[in-house]
Amino acid sequence: MDLATTYLGLNLRSPLVPSASPLSQSADNIKRMEDAGAAAVVLPSLFEEQLIGESLELEYHLSHTSNLSAEALSYFPEASTYRLGPDEYLKHISDAKKSVGIPVIGSLNGTTAGGWTGFAKQMEQAGADALELNVYYIPTDLALDGAAVEQTYVDILKVVKASVSIPVAVKLSPFFSNMGNMARRLDEAGADGLVLFNRFYQPDIDLDALEVKPNIILSTPQAMRLPLRWIAILYGQIGASLAATSGIHQSHDVLKMLMAGASITQVCSVLLMKGIEHLKVLEQGLIEWMEVNEYESVKQMQGSMSQKNVANPSAFERAQYTKALQTYVVD
Amino acid sequence: MKKTIIDGNEAVAYVAYRVNEVIAIYPITPSSNMGEWADQWASEGVKNIWGTVPSVVEMQSEGGAAGAVHGALQTGSLSTTFTASQGLLLMIPNMYKISGELTSAVFHVAARSLAAQALSIFGDHSDVMGTRSTGWALLSSGSVQEAMDFALISEAATLESRVPFLHFFDGFRTSHEVSTIDLLSDETIKAMVDDNLVTAHRARALSPDHPVMRGTAQNPDVYFQAREACNPFYRKCPAITQKAMDRFAELTGRQYKLYEYHGPADAERVIVVMGSGNETVDETAQYLAAQGEKVGVLMVRLFRPFDVQAFVEAFPKTTRAIAVLDRTKEPGSAGEPMYLDAVNAFQEAADEGFSAPAVRPRIIGGRYGLSSKEFTPAMVKAVYDELTKDKPKNHFTIGINDDVTHTSLEYDESFSIEPASVVRAMFFGLGADGTVGANKNSIKIIGKYTDNFAQGYFVYDSKKSGAMTVSHLRFGPKPIRAPYLVAQANFVACHQPIFIERYDMLKDLAPGGTFLLNTPFGPDEAWDSLPRPMQEQLIAKKAKFYVIDAISVAHDAGMGRRINTVMQTCFFAISGVLERGKAIDAINRSIRDTYGRKGEEVVRMNLEAVDKSLAHLHEVKVPEAATSSVQFLPPVPMSSPSFVREVTGEIIAGHGDLLPVSAMPIDGTFPTGTTQYEKRNIALEIPIWDSKTCIQCGKCAFVCPHASIRMKAYDAALLDGAPAEFRSTDARAAEWKGQKFTLQVAPEDCTGCGVCVDVCPAKNKSETRLKAINMEPQMPLRDRERANWDFFQSIPEVDRRTLKNTVIRQQQVQQPLFEFSGACEGCGETPYVKLVSQLFGDRAVVANATGCSSIYGGNLPTTPWAKNAEGRGPAWSNSLFEDNAEFGMGFRLSVDKQKEFAEQLVQRVATKVGEDLATAILTAEQNDEADIYEQRSRVAALKTKLEALPDADAKRLLPLADMLVKKSVWIIGGDGWAYDIGFGGLDHVLASGRNVNVLVLDTEVYSNTGGQMSKSTPRGAVAKFAAGGKPAGKKDLGMIAMSYGTVYVASVAMGAKDEHTLKAFLEAEAYNGPSLIIAYSHCIAHGIDMKTGLQNHKAAVNSGNWLLYRYNPGKATQGQNPLSLDSAPPKMPVGEYMYMQNRFKMLTKTKPEDAQRLLAEAQEDVNSRYRLYEQLAARGAETASSNGSSNGDGA
């Protein structure tokens, strides 16, 4: 069975790619992913903000407690060097490259223009095969209009593209007035791929403590409907390759995304729940379905159920909403 | 020759590290930094001159370090250690051995006072003088340069002479002075250390390949002769030392002499001095000689072996009068040691016909500079002047006013020899604001970018929170030889606006000098914000006045309260030490050098601060006349007791140097409860109570490290006359039904740590960011809350008999008898100490090991241990670091003996005082507050009767009668004491079965001396002496104690389960046998936000890193398992806890691979330890108690 696909210009043996998650923090896990059939791996995001935070935190603890009293001029031994920059992350990329043959995709979340470009370049030099820009951005400034937010995405992409020669994908949220237009703008700005969609962790309220708590909830299969729709709409309309992520738990989900037009499917929650080796199950399920239904290759089905190629394109549009409600049967 | 700018400790360690192979260390102020340097270099792989990295090993005490060095020497290594004061005393037994075996070795000592009437961390020669009979050569250096040079000379001399050398230099004055010096090159060091002598040293070593034995026992027939066999070596030692000095001079151009005379060849008056005083006397003598006075100085370098001939022959033949200055005190002696040596030398010179002054000089001796007391040119001049008298005063003191035995010489304080070419600057800052660090940096900049020589010396006050630092800087074209504080400063900077109402900072400003003030007031308002005395001085001195709002600038640059870079920039911009543009460029480069390795953002913030500083620096024109009507604040209220006003207040105001001998307690006895008079007002924000939201749980009061939050329930009628804004609400507890309740903050004593707010569980229902207690700016609330606090104080304390002390909300109403200490903001130790004082303070006697708790508990000027309205409260003492358990056991033995005797006497006088009263006294159980109250009443009645009785037994009983009321003995200290240096004694005391209560304030590190590793330090934590993360796990002290089966043991963490802590303290005290409470104490040395300290307790317990348990032997006697494991199985990974703290996290930034491995090992530690405790707690009682039976009656 030919599972091969192309994503960001990279030839991959299958459409199954573990997405950026804590799982790919460990070199052992990355090897296990390759062994379980992963076609590529996206590393966890390097957060520039976190690097800055750690450096400030270290400086605070070292300097804030120095020269406090005659007996204690300091409380910590000072080291001649600190590994504060992205060194650990870059080493992780190069270690991963050494230990596996599949493409390794670095993921980056910057806070400054210099951070975006600097770290992107360093990731490229460390051996990353491609970059995923994780523009995790929640505009809370009510004075900021939508155009400015959109421009931020485009600007970031442009500066990064100008600084590296490896392919660059943008992982973005669905929260744009016109998602399709945004996708086109990014495509025009040079995006090699779009990853749909970033799942923002939404806050929760702890009633006992009366505190807002970040509460990480793993994706559910229902979450795949949103990327499914947009991939189906975008397929064939933009040049960038499309990666589906969110709610992909079973091989049927993979099939649906491929048919909608995804080049690859990124999986995370299901691996967190069932283990890295579950990739094998997904692949096996994919093969079995394709065999039963007499498909020869993944490429054959890619985009087959996109808006462009389905019998009823309006099924992906808003009109369907009314219909869906009207036909809903209460048990 | 390469110039460098370093302090004395680093200078010495630099050499010692290069010429040794085994370095055994133990922290003690002011020598700790030498060990820290050695450890750091070893962890970085720096090699010695033979190309190998020395082994640097921390021991459990200085005694242990000396033993390890002795062993290393005996087996052929070159070995050294660094120490001071009590640490040196602990090395004395080994020192006799090392010298008796004629072993080449050098110890480096930052000379420090010994604990006598009080401990002092500061410098004098008392410790070194205590070793003068050990057979060690004593070589003294008097400056940072000399300290480096003599470290090498002593090494060369010991190898050749085989006499071990103690190289010493003045603690703080030299050890901590930052100075420009020539750095010795490795070539010079190699040239001084003869490899043949090293080989000879190795050849003498113990080896099974050519075995010998040393350390035999000798008998009356030969011991004496054998003791004399070393004489030839001692005779040769001075010449060998001089030879090493001469060789050193050939290599470096710096010539030293064993006894070095400086001055005119025809001097008549000579001062003999040793240590940093050398330079002060020398510079003063030169100044006076230039004016025609015939004065000189004889610097003693080699004090032992004392070369009488060389000493005497060093004096000019014209010498008529000699003053020998000793920096030590030997009460009861015929004179201090160097004085006696001098007298003896001239006697022997006469007898032996040495080339001595023609006329035998008059010799007087005097004491100076104890505990880093200032020793200035003015004092030197007074001594020279004294020598002009026909009958100069012998056994004098200089630098103090001895109005009791009238030993002191008067001196003219205004006498100064400071040359105009030297720029002098003083900076008043807070410990936490970065002032000292900035000044050290400025010195480096000046050293690097100009040809100037620089000197920096830093004075800290005794507090750990809100401590004032005064930096004294000098810069000049020639080497600075002024080892005394700056006076007549050209530049004075006040880095904290709160100082202007308290300290007379301008008294040391030279006429025409510059004053820089950090103030929130702009250039137009700043003048009016100054107190009148400051205005008057600025006018009289025709000073320049600059202001900057450094807090705002630093804040805007993202640097919070760290105003170091801002103030440093201002200093360079206006002081003229360096051309302005060049200076700013240098600061910027220095920022990149200093902060580069900590990340670009840190660099950016500092660079931004430099730019912003210049834009916000303003000159204020000094008007013609003073306008202010404000005076300096009095240091203590005028209503304070006379001792507090006349002595304590003067110390607080910085006038302690002026207090005469008569003002001092003769035996180190001080009144308790004096912190209440020292209103430090260091909090920028204080917590304010919201009575409507409060649930009256008492948690905020429980955790308050400074006892600044108090609770009372009281009758509503008492509110008559309350200030209008005094807050009160209905008491919630059923027992206080109908009463009012108030929670009040002591606004001027609070340090603003915010721990109370963090721990408060009650939230405002409409605005959840608010709690029942919230931080608000102190300044606008100070007057209001002061009035509220005063009124609150007037409300009577709740009768202790009525309180349910097993629940925190009631127990916290008990009056703290430990309050307002100088501990760090948010200290994790003091809440436990306070709890002891609340529960048992009115009948407690406390033995306190040296460490943080003895410093915040007993460092002058004020004392936090307090008294209640009846005048009762904890009696407290600190003996030593190593003996605290034994010291406390002595309390117990003494109390028990006196009680026993008192009971016998009661029986003897029973018929006279009344059988009923006697029986009631003798049979009283005294198990709770009511019992104790009753017993106190009975004893009072007994005493009344005894006073009327004429017989001897009654008279004997009277002073002992109070012992009939139960006393609670507490032995308190940190983990450095309990796990390391005092462990042997602690173990013995726990095994003794005596009723003592041991409280270990476990910060898992030597906190007081700056964060060195102890055996309590957990695996993976970075600490001094464990820069690569502690490789071994934490010692399980509780398990060791439990193995006796007779010791009550509790492991508590108040932030994890406060009721558990309370329960453990009550059970421990109630247990009639030894008790050990190990209390998790978060600490500034953990690298945490101290406000959230208690969250670390919770995480420590939730991760299983810290277990909560109680082991009560009393339960075993009742057939139950004595061990209750009180914490649930770990529910979070240990890494989650560890990486809340910089001590663990920084390893991930220095050695990430090691951090990962140690994290995995730490997790395994936690898992296996929990399993073990779980098994022990689940065992049947019979098995559990089989390892020992209780001798106590249980809780």
Protein architecture, described:
The complex is a heterodimer of chains A (331) and B (1195). Chain A has 12 helices and 12 strands. Chain A is of the alpha/beta class and 331 residues long. In chain A, the strands form 3 sheets. Chain A has an 8-stranded parallel beta sheet. In chain A, strands 1-2 form a two-stranded antiparallel sheet. In chain A, helix 4 runs parallel beside helix 5 and helix 8 crosses helix 10 (278-292). The radius of gyration of chain A is 22 Å and the shape is globular. The two termini of chain A are 42 Å apart. With 1195 residues, chain B is of the alpha/beta class. Chain B has 42 helices and 36 strands. Chain B has a 9-stranded mixed beta sheet with strand order 1-8-18-19-17-20-21-22-23, with helices on both faces. In chain B, strands 30-29-31-32-34-33-35-36 form an 8-stranded mixed beta sheet, sandwiched between helices. A 7-stranded mixed beta sheet of chain B has the order 3-2-4-5-7-6-12, sandwiched between helices. In chain B, helix 2 links the parallel strand 2 (22-25) and strand 3. Mean pLDDT of chain B is 96; it is low at 1184-1195. At the A-B interface, helix 2 of A face helix 2, helix 15, strand 18, helix 21 and helix 40 of B.
What is the subunit organization of this protein?
A: heterodimer
Nearest-angstrom radius of gyration of chain A?
22 Å
Could you give the count of β-strands of chain A? 12
Apparent shape of chain B: globular
Q: What is the straight-line distance between the termini of chain A? A: 42 Å
TL;DR of this structure?
The complex is a heterodimer of chains A (331) and B (1195). In chain A, 40% of the residues lie in helices and 16% in strands. Chain A has 331 residues and is α/β, with parallel strands linked by helices.
